[in-house]
Amino acid sequence: MQTCYHFHGDLTNLLRRRWRGANPIIQPVTRSASIKDVIESFGLPHTEIGDLLCDGRPVNFSRPVAAGHRFDIHPVPAPWDVTRPTLLRPHPLQGLGFVVDINAGRLARYLRMAGFDTLYEPSWDNAKILQVLQLEPRILLTRSLDLLKWKQVEFGRYIRAEAPVDQLREVLALFGVVESRHSLSRCLQCNTVLQPVPKQEILHRLEPLTIRYVDAFSICGRCDKIYWKGSHATGMQRVLEGR
Description:
243 residues; 5-stranded mixed β-sheet; elongated; alpha/beta; 4-stranded parallel β-sheet
């Protein structure tokens, strides 16, 4: 007897090339394995799965695969509430916090601009990212399918879009973010929360036109960079509003 694996939504696009034209995938069971191991052998990371059914009943990733069963693999539904425990992810996050790897590095700047706590260091390799996730659970955003398959990654997203602004829109849509009350509140360089700074204290660092037209400023306590709301603020608001 054989086992049937039916992939729903856009999950078929993330399968290895040899499997993309076959849905459902029907195979004999030749070894003892969990459904997580089998699904990832097709190329799909567990982080992309929102619901997993065996013969119509919800199961978790540890369910052993046996002949004669049908598995339905559904994508993570939007909006994704990562603060709610589920059968597949019993340990929820306390809120939206991200780690971005170098494959989607430019996205980190946009997320910080939108006010999201986003860790990103170009020098971090996969081992370092996995270490960070073990110490502080976050959502990994990457364009590497293989990185998402590690067991240390409980929450993650394979970023489909290529342009950074489209990647930001993708993330906002996935997590149901329709507005950000904290946009332009973090340092774009190091992710530190900005603090207000009196204009008089930084006059010597400002250009004449900035002194003339801007009154409200913030500063990063870590890298000492000065910020104020300019045309980029309007652009960010348009992205948040989906325009």
